[in-house]
Amino acid sequence: MAPKRPDGAGAFPVPVEPPAPRRPDPAELYAALDLGTNSCRMLIAQPKGNQFHVVDSFSKSVQLGSGLERSGRLSRASMARTVQALRICRKKLEKHAVKRMRLVATEACRRATNSAEFLRYVRSETGLTLDIIPTQEEAQLAVVSCAPLVSTNTEQLLVIDIGGGSTELVWIDLTRVPKPDRPKAIMRLHNGFTPADSPFPHAKVVDWISVPLGVATLRDQFSDVEDDAGRFALMSWFFEENLATFSPYDEVQAREGFQIIGTSGTVTTVAASHLGLKRYDRNKVDGLRMTSDQIDKVIREYLALGPVGRRNDPRIGRDRHALIMSGAAILQALLRVWPTDRLSVADRGLREGLLYAQMSADGVLEDRPF
User: Which residues of 93-124 are buried (b: 16+ CB within 10 A; e: fewer)?
Assistant: First the structure.
C-alpha cells in the first residue's frame, strides 16, 4: 500500500509578508525647503531621539540665478523652471498633510531686483509662501545642521557653507564648553549667534561672514577667461581677497584642536572623488574626514582632467561638472589660509538646520549626546 501523504502536502506555502510600515502621524511631521541659486531642495521628517527620520525628500537643479550676475534680475525661464519644481514640493506636502514647515529662499532672491514679483508668482502658481532669509540666519542654520559632526576634542571650529550665490563662514570658540557638551552647544546656536541668558556654557562665535561669491556667481565673473588653469587660479585668489574683513584671517591657527566642517555640493563631490565613488553614497561621504593634502590632490586631478575630462568623470557627475572648479577654487583658498588635518564632510545644510531649529523650538528632540 502506498504511504498516505499528510494533509496539505504539496500545497503552495502561504506567503508571509512583512507588515506595512506605519504611516507617520502628520502631527509629528516637519518640512524644510531651501530654494538656492542653483537648486531647490526639500525634506519632510519626523523627530527621532535627538535626530530626525526623513520621510520624504526632493532635490532638483533649477538654476534660478542663471543670468543674475549680468542682469540683476531672475529670468522668465529660470522662474518657470523653479515653479515647476515647487509644484512637486507642494504635492509632497499635501500627500503627507504636513502642517509645520519653513520654506525659505536665499542669495538669488536676496539680490534680484524682481524677487518680490517672483515670490508673488510662486504663491499664485503653487500656493506656497517663501521667506527670503538674511545672510546671518542662513549662516546660523548651516552651523546648526553640522552639530552632530562636531568632535568633542574641537576647541576652534570653522564651518563653511559654499552655496550657489554666496559662501558663509562662521568661526566658533568652544574652549569654555565642557568636551561632552560641545555638539549640543552648537545646536543651541539656532537661537542666534549672540547667546541669551542661559545656564549652559555657550559656544562663542568669534566672527562670521557671508561672501557674495558662490559656485555660480564666481564662475560667471571669470567666464571670459579661456585658459582652464588660469581661470581657476584667478577665482581662488579673488575669493581669498574677499576674506580680508574676516577677523580670524590674519591669525595663524594651530592644527591641534582645530576642525573645519564643510557643507556643500563642492565638498561632498571632492570627498566622493577622493573615495573613488562612481555612484554617490551619502553613508560613505557624510562625516568623512579629510586632510588639506588629500583635498589638494583631488583638485590637482580635476585640473589635469580639463573641462572635457571633468564632464565625463563619473565621480563628478553631469550636474556638477560645470560648477566644480569654482567651488574647488573657494575650497582651495580656504585651506590655503587655514590648513587642517580634520575637514569633516557634511552632506547636510540649510534644510537640516531648518528642521533642527523647528524641532528644537518645539522641544521635541531628546536632550542627550549625539
Answer: beebebebbbbbbbbbbbbbebbeebbebbee
Q: What is the pLDDT of residue 315?
A: 87
Edge-first strand listing for the sheet containing 39-48: 51-61, 39-48, 30-35, 100-105, 131-132
Residues linked to residue 260 through DSSP beta bridges, in sequence order: 158, 343
Q: Identify the pLDDT of residue 257.
A: 87
> Which cell numbers in the block locate residue 338?
587655514
Average pLDDT over residues 311-336: 90
pLDDT tens column, 147-175: 989 999 999 999 999 998 899 999 999 99
SS3 annotation, 314-359:
CCCCCCCCCCHHHHHHHHHHHHHHCCCCCEEEECCCHHHHHHHHHH
Q: What CATH superfamily is the domain 26-133? A: ATPase, nucleotide binding domain (3.30.420.40)
pLDDT of residue 45: 95
